[in-house]
Amino acid sequence: MARILHSDPAHLDLLAHHLAAGGIAAVPTETVYGLAGHALEAVPVAKIFSVKGRPRRNPLIVHVSDWEGVEAIAHVTDLDRMVGERFWPGPLTLILKKKSTVPASVTAGLDTVAVRIPSHPLVRALLRRCSFPLAAPSANPFGYISPTRPEHVETALGPSIDYILDGGICEGGIESTIVSLLDPDEPKLLRQGAIGLESLEETIGQSIRLSTDAPGEKPTRGLLSPGLMERHYSPHTLLRTFRGSLPKTGKGDAIVFLNAASCRGAHHFALSATGQLEEVARNLYDRLYRLDEKGYGTLFLEVPEGDGLAAAIRDRMGRASASP
């Protein structure tokens, strides 16, 4: 079973040494926990794919501590820098043209690499101790609920990894926004997240297209970005979404509301005390983890209305409830 490490400098030194030697470990970010390994070495990258059961055509996000780290692995345009300087460190991933130092296994064979500078203080302290970037997809079996607490990782992957760096609950709760500025005339939002479309458009001064590329059409081709699988973030329990009127439930079903005020029964649960979206996002995966252990027949999940963070939450709920 994985050993739990904390913010003690000795623990961070130990973990940095473990990663430098080709090991992998779960680490906290401000979004979700990631399964981290040396991004420029084939062995740890292969371990990440193996432990997660992740398809090789699904690229990994590479995490670095600063702009020097970005420029060591990717070609950066003025537009990339404008956006990065506005939102980094933070929950934004940019799709950049990769340099030859990045293995094809990290990028699903593409000539681009997904990069971000995280803001969580523990992973930043760890990155400063490493002389290399970290590939770190979510620390869960592929397709399952993303982990936002160390206990989630311990339950799902504990027997398969050596260390979990305990950073408490992830404040953001959903994965990073992913944007591609490869074509400056047609920027694309590939995955919605806490950084919304309007903020990105305001920063670059032009409209950004929300990608509607259908995942899975070409199984042998690498996806441009993580988070494009039609079914993802899913509990084992059957999940259905609703809005407005209450769904018709059967015996053994449960309803998960956005607002605690809507709860009326023993099998009613809430994602927030007041429906506040930041709290909904932070609690979404944790609530799904806990309810997935209860043996319900179906979980009915209320989806939020609106743009920005509401749209990102709807995206996760929609993918989690998609048909297998």
Key features of this structure:
alpha/beta; 2 domains; 324 residues; DHBP synthase; single chain; Rossmann fold
SSE diagram, text form:
Blueprint (H helix, E strand, L loop, with lengths): L2 E3 L3 H12 L4 E3 L6 E5 L3 H11 L8 E3 L3 H7 E2 L2 H10 L4 E7 L13 E5 L4 H9 L4 E2 L14 H8 L5 E3 L11 E4 L7 E4 L5 H8 L4 E2 L27 E5 L11 E4 L10 E3 L6 H16 L5 E5 L6 H12 L4
Helix pairs in contact: 1-5
What is the overall number of helices?
9
Structural shape: globular
Mean pLDDT: 94
Number of domain units: 2
In percent, how much strand structure appears in the residues? Answer: 15-25%
- What proportion of the residues is helical, as a percent range? 25-40%
Query: What name is given to the CATH topology of the largest domain?
Result: DHBP synthase
CATH C-level class of the largest domain = Alpha Beta
- Runs in which pLDDT lies below 50 for 5 or more consecutive residues are 213-220
Order of helices and strands: EHEEHEHEHEEHEHEEEHEEEEHEH
